[in-house]
Design a protein that fits this description.
The structure is a homodimer.
Chain A (H helix, E strand, L loop, with lengths): L1 H28 L6 H19 L2 H12 L4 H18 L3 H21 L5 H26 L3 H6 L8 H32 L11 H14 L7 E5 L5 E4 L2 E6 L7 H19 L15 H16 L2 H15 L9 H8 L16 H17 L7 H13 L26 H20 L3 H6 L4 H10 L9 H9 L6 H12 L1
Parallel strand pairs in A: 1-3
Antiparallel strand pairs in A: 2-3
């Protein structure tokens, strides 16, 4: 009975989730500007209904009773996840959440206004308020979850992430990358000297790029009866597992950015579409966390779609949709020159896969100090500059816009999220290595446009497992090992030094 | 306090309405087919939340208390409407509603399957169940509302509609139209003999038709910061007043159907956009009813957009968007020949404005007999045939698909809705006449593409008045008279006999 009550509540929450997700997609894709005020009201009201239902005191009784009942392994995992989500939702008081939401919304609005001007001084007071509340939140969560404060924050995005486990992994990766990036760039310079980048045979009409994107999505396994591709300013993968809404944006001067973006989001979309639909109303049926989600997008983008094997297959597909002229005079190596380009820069979201982890590690290190109080908000620009200079040889002191003001995460109060990006990259490489052990023909399959085996492997090992296991356990069950840096490092060496 | 409680509830219901409306639009416009099952679950769950909140017993206490409080005229109207909606929602038991929804959904599904085959016999058993429940509903509503059973059904769509008021109006209109239609057709034959219909200079690419539609919508006053135009299989006007979502469908062989359809829906959209936004969370802030809504769409479509004055202005606008070739060799009269074409036919939704009311009157007469039990469901085809033969000279005995099986209304349980269409047409003509008395330059304004004065008049007299008055009172305040047939009849004579 108590389990049935939990499931009943899960179905109500799923409906509210569905509405919120779809209204969010509509807002990003097509809502006229004047619809924004009422949309915001509707979304906040739905969030209120959700919170009220999900945190009702009787829910704790249902969970207690369900835990005492006799359940099979899946049922036990289901109740465990339900409790985890319930605990995470109820460990902050409604009053605290209201104060925090207000501070975050105001700070994010200010950030949108002041970032283009690089006005750190104007932004700082509001941001200090967000940091203070984040420290309060971390302490509250830490007490409820019996975790260290920073771990309690990461727990929201990747259950099981612990700084003590991540720090040595990131330290090793940082040491490697500080040497590797200059080495890979020297190698790249040699290659480009012999074979310069070819100019694009532009323009590429958007309708054709769209058709190409659709064809590639379908080829790698996206189910268009359960999803669509639209256009938005910031590409994302949203919606619900039964109806995945992906977006991209196009430029007519080149087609590779949009296409790689589409394939990245398709990786997210395949994960969502591969979740077990019979548990879609329960937390245990959701994707495991942000690192695992990012591993799925990076698997498709970095491991598969930027490989020479993929382009061996993809060249004629591109010609078919963009026209024979589009790739006239190009061969696979000309495409790879673009999609393997390494260039250290200020901006994380524009970074290549070799320098990206350094952006993340910088934030991971600073976040821990911000949470502990070792670093004050006002001292961020100097600390940021020191690390950027050390890791990538770039000074940001006079450029806060492209330094600590570049990301929306901190202004909006999301601390503890950044590690997921790089954990996802490491995970993707480790999954690929495991898959290739199990399916030695994997690269050959890609060359021939056969993606079914790759998807079956991920469906079996990752997608269908939803939230049955913690992130580390899920990875170990899939690959036989805890998280390693070596597969990512091997991947980089193979791609950029050979 | 009680009024504040009502407003607070109103805001919650508005948010749920917003979500349901937008999810409905998304489903019709772009949802992939596989998303349907979870969408249906989400919508039914949201409807459940809505019903639970809106019909809670304490709401009756709040309304009682608010009625005893001191309120200004708007406040009183607000509480009156709240009570009206509450009474209408609570006079059926939850158990009855569940039974009825099940029967309706099953019958409508069967209808979709059997209509193309014209299988009346296969459809009848399920439909008999719907009719039986409709009679039960009518009796329950009649008791709660102290109305005659058929009036109690009409009350859901147009508060204040009474068969005793409508019957003589429709009788007069029917008598007129039975003579008028043959007369107008003879006149039309003469005209077409002298000046045959010109073939369209097709094709008209969809992108250009879309741009033309946008331009016309904007010209007649649609605010694209609070709405959009998309494509769907069945055109509609949905969304919420702050974000009106209209749809149409295009064919490339001609452009007038889509354009007139767009202008029809724009009439609905202008009404929604013109409602007072400060009351958007209260029933009093909604559009007055289906007849008034239809009057607004028919005002724009029939009174304005099919007039010679409109086309005097519109010809160069069409040329600008579809190209000079599009109207090469056409003048205003060639367009009018198409948009004024009278042709009696089986199908209501395809009917011209002269024969349309006969379709509606037929249904109005039969509905009353169905509700009272004078007509059994099984005898509908014969009764339908008798009336179609009498009113339009068309026999439907061997063709139930294009006879009583053509509309979704009855299979889905919507009885009492049909009169609204023709009441809307009469209202539109009466409003036009009143407007022209107030603004003698109205036709001249249209010739010059000036729609602001027309909109100001409707905003003042109709849109801003939302649900402050009953439909008959609203019409009388706007035009100085109760509903008349004479303005519609004058309109038809002027357009089709001169």
């Amino acid at each position: 009975m108590s389990f049935a009550q939990i499931e009943d509540l899960g179905r109500k929450l799923e409906a509210l989730d569905h509405a919120q997700a779809m209204l969010g997609v509509d807002e990003a894709v097509q809502m006229p500007v004047g619809g924004g005020e009422k949309r915001a009201e509707a979304l906040s009201m739905l969030a209120g209904f959700y919170h009220e239902l999900a945190t009702a005191p009787e829910v704790a009784d249902w969970i207690d009773a369900a835990e005492r009942g006799s359940l099979d392994a899946n049922g036990q995992a289901s109740v465990r996840e339900f409790r985890r989500v319930y605990t995470n939702m109820t460990c902050l008081s409604a009053d605290f959440v209201r104060r925090q939401v207000n501070a975050r919304v105001r700070c994010e609005q200010l950030w949108r206004e002041l970032r283009p001007k690089g006005d750190w001084a104007g932004f700082l007071p509001a941001f200090e308020g967000v940091v203070a509340l984040m420290r309060e939140e971390a302490a509250l969560r830490a007490a409820a979850l019996r975790l260290a404060p920073y771990d309690a924050l990461m727990e929201q995005y990747d259950p099981g992430n612990r700084a003590a486990d991540i720090a040595p992994v990131f330290a090793e990766l940082k040491a490697f990358l500080k040497d590797f990036v200059p080495q890979a760039m020297a190698h790249q310079d040699e290659r480009l000297a012999k074979r310069p980048l070819k100019p694009f045979n532009a323009p590429f009409p958007i309708e054709r790029q769209k058709a190409l994107g659709h064809a590639m999505m379908e080829a790698v396994g996206f189910d268009f009866t359960h999803g669509r591709l639209d256009i938005s300013h910031h590409p994302f993968c949203g919606g619900v597992p039964s109806d995945v809404r992906m977006t991209t944006r196009y430029v007519t001067g080149e087609f590779l950015s949009a296409l790689m973006g589409i394939l990245h989001e398709t990786g997210h979309g395949l994960y969502e579409q591969g979740l077990p639909s019979e548990w879609s109303h329960m937390p245990v049926g959701r994707a495991r966390g942000m690192a695992m989600h990012e591993s799925q997008s990076l698997f498709v983008e970095m491991q598969v779609s930027r490989s020479p094997e993929f382009w061996h297959w993809a060249m004629p597909v591109v010609a078919q949709h963009l026209g024979e002229e589009a790739l006239k005079g190009w061969d696979v190596d000309d495409v790879l020159s673009y999609v393997h380009r390494i260039k250290p820069g200020f901006i994380r979201v524009d970074a290549d896969e070799a320098t990206y982890p350094l952006h993340v590690i910088l934030r991971f290190e600073m976040e821990q100090d911000l949470v502990s109080g070792k670093l004050a908000a006002k001292d961020i620009p100097e600390a940021w500059n020191a690390k950027m200079t050390d890791y990538l040889g770039l000074s940001t002191l006079d450029n806060p816009k492209d330094g600590p003001m570049q990301d929306v995460h901190w202004p909006s109060g999301a601390f503890g999220y950044f590690p997921s990006y790089t954990l996802g990259a490491l995970t993707a490489a480790q999954l690929w290595a495991a898959l290739e052990r199990d399916q030695p023909s994997a690269r050959d399959d890609i060359s021939n446009g056969r993606f079914v085996g790759l998807n079956d492997w991920r469906r079996r090992n990752i997608w269908s497992q939803a939230s049955l296991w913690s992130t580390p356990d899920l990875l170990e069950r899939a690959t036989g090992e805890r998280l390693q840096t070596k597969y990512f490092i091997q991947h980089l060496k193979r791609r950029y030094l050979s």
